[in-house]
Amino acid sequence: MSEALLEVNNLITEFDTDEGVVRAVDNISFAATAGETLGIVGESGCGKSVTALSIMRLLPQPMGKIVGGEILFKGQNLADLSLPQMEKIRGNNISMVFQEPMTALNPVHTIGRQLTEVLLLHKDITAQQAIQQGVKILDRVGIPSPDIRMTEYPHQLSGGMRQRVVIAIALACNPDLLIADEPTTALDVTIQAQILELIKELQKDLGMSVILITHDLGVIAETCDKVVVMYAGKVAERASVHELFDSPAHPYTQGLLASIPRMDTTPKSRLSIIEGMVPGLLDLPEGCRFENRCPHKRALCEDAPPAIDEVSPGHEVSCYRWQEI
Amino acid sequence: MSKVLLEVQDLKMHFPVKEGILLRTSKYNKAVDGISLEIAPGETLGLVGESGCGKSTLGRCIARLYKPTSGSIKFEGEEISLLGANALSAYRRHIQMIFQDPMESLNSRHTVAEIIEEPLIVQNMGDTAWRAKRVKELLDIVGLPARSVSRYPFEFSGGQRQRIGIARSIALNPKLIICDEPVSALDVSIQSQILNLLVDLQKEFNLSYLFIAHDLAVVKHISDRIAIMYLGKIVETGDSQTIYRNAQHPYTQSLISAIPMPDPHRKVTRQLIIGDVPSPIAPPPGCNFHPRCPRAIERCSVDVPQLSASKADSTGLVSCHLVD
Asked: With CB atoms 3.0 to 4.6 Å apart as the test, which of A15, A202, B153, B242 could cross-link to B106 if both were Cys?
């Protein structure tokens, strides 16, 4: 196995809110290897987007801050960098694709201006060269007549095309790492298939590492090599995609996989469910975060959070009872 | 086939597009363009399509939130497409809706009791005491505690809010519920809870559903029959299991192959379709799907295909020149 490009160790991110300090990400660790796609999956509020924003150092200010742990990118701790240092990395070495392509683009600037902005910022080239490169990149992400599109505004493009533009901007400087936060959630299923295919293809060509954040286990299964399952701010399970789907060890992962209707489930049969709902981040249980919904709960689960345990090399789970269940 | 609850014939809903300084109507957005369908008592018809294909507009026409441009909607044999406001009120008892976003479809200034009671008041049913009892009964049916009555929607999670919306929709004992993307705003673990509830309610009260969604796995799970819509028209209908196993229309095939499956071992043989859905204001000539169709022939850009019997399914229909 090659060395990790990005290593997140014991990351803790907190938000100051009117009701108190909320720990959105609590002591999570994972690593992304060059050329691989790492999936982060979880439900709303599990901290997957906050993790991405922490890596990018884009947490809402002044409420959000990283209070512990390190984010090692090529050995450099991003959590310690000054903002000007971080700006050199952001968009250049690490890029991000957001969920809503309409809000991620500036509606009053042309596609060309938004695309060349990142090139002019990070590269020593003239405006003319930036435009030429911009056209090339738009062509690469599959936008027809790219030279005309350069002069158009975001509202003139469809949702799928806009997401292609966002990807083009993210890839303009050939980043080592692309973080895609729900890149296809706002898109239709046929467009989603196109965009996922594009990300996969570009990753192969450019050899970059991708962190794909999603709530859709189908997307994870089709695009990722490794998966991190998050629940209420903590890592529930980490495994290769095959391990995770073949032998999920955490009751939450098992519950999730069992609850999705599949092509071969009997129609109108009862779907298995996970009882109850995710605890609020302001009143988390003291023990395991999943304790109030877990069908395998025992007294010890309520006392203290379980540590990370190794199931097999590369497959880790945070559960007291994974061996018995 | 048993008796029909709802019968829609050649329904059209064209919205005028106003342009210029004088706001003259020069074009029409043909959101629903000649749709026919039937729903039997106790049956679920799944309506699938991408955004902008007109599936929600169709649902709203059937609920008579819109007055259709032309065509007929028969509910239990009675024509309702032309009814005025007073006559509609009686009909509304039988057709209710569940909306996608339970935050926006519940009045945030009303308590749960007020929200669920409102349809009963509108329809002049019972006295205050009876209605209060009925609200508690409905909460129990959808799995919410009776003490919820005095609370406000913001105090509930997304899944619970959707349960409130469902309680409201079944308050009048309707025969047909139009579910417009009822689970797409919910988390995976909550989705299955709501789907189970909808299936239980259908069995208990013999409800019919028009289930509008874009998630094909969900639609297949809950539907008896499925209709696939593209740009205001139905391109294929049939038994939900048969459509998945043996889709005839190239659009249905691509739609099914585009679903990401939660199985990393599956070999993806994906039939990617290129481009985006064209605008319903200026749909392409011939078959609506031909500019994106991987198998289009010359005839497709000239002739409009008609729905005709499907080879795969004795009750199915498909609208494509290439299937015969």
From this structure: B153
Q: At what angle do helices B188-205 and A251-259 cross, to 10 degrees?
A: 50
**Cα–Cα distance measured from residue B135 to residue A227, given in angstroms and rounded to the nearest whole number:** 44
Q: What is the CATH number of the domain that holds B50?
A: 3.40.50.300
Burial of B36 (0-12, 13-18, 19+ CB in 10 A): middle
B268 and B292 part of one domain? yes
Residues of A in contact with B190 (CB under 8 A): 277
- Are residues B252 and B118 part of one domain? no
Q: Which of B173, B197, B223 is the last residue of a domain?
A: B173
| Best B161, B188, B198, B256 residue to mutate vs chain A (most A CBs within 10 Å) | B188
Record: contact B196-A273, CB cut-off 8 A: yes
Q: What is the pLDDT along chain A (325 residues), one digit of tens a residue?
A: 457 899 999 999 999 988 889 999 999 999 999 999 999 999 888 999 999 999 999 999 889 999 999 999 999 999 999 999 999 999 999 999 988 877 889 999 999 999 999 999 999 999 999 999 999 999 989 888 899 999 999 999 888 889 999 999 999 999 999 999 999 888 888 888 888 999 999 899 888 999 999 999 999 999 999 999 999 999 999 999 999 999 999 999 999 999 988 877 888 888 888 888 888 888 888 999 999 999 999 999 999 999 999 999 999 999 999 998 8
Q: Are residues B247 and B179 in the same domain?
A: yes
3-state secondary structure of B72: strand
Asked if residue B102 belongs to a domain, the reply is no
Q: How far apart are CA B25 and CA B38, in angstroms?
A: 33
In a domain, B101, yes or no: no
- B264·A245 Cβ contact <8 A: yes
Number of domains in chain B: 2
Nearest CB partner across the interface for B188, out of A158, A190, A256: A256
Judging contacts by C-beta atoms under 8 Å, the chain B residues touching residue A46 are: none
Q: Give the end of a domain, one of B116, B139, B173.
A: B173
For residue B146, is it within any domain? yes
* Minimal C-alpha gap between B79 and chain A (Å): 31
Q: Are B292 and B286 in contact (CB under 8 A)?
A: no
- The winner for highest mean pLDDT among A202-206, B104-108, B165-169 is B165-169
| One domain for residues B133 and B184 | no
ipTM above 0.85, yes or no: no
B296 and B228 co-located in one domain: yes
Choose among B220, B254, B265: nearest Cβ to A190.
B254
- B268 contact residues in A (CB cutoff 8 A): 222
Mean pLDDT of chain B: 90
Where in the sequence is the domain holding B128, given as residue range(s)?
108-173
Same domain for B185 and B85: yes
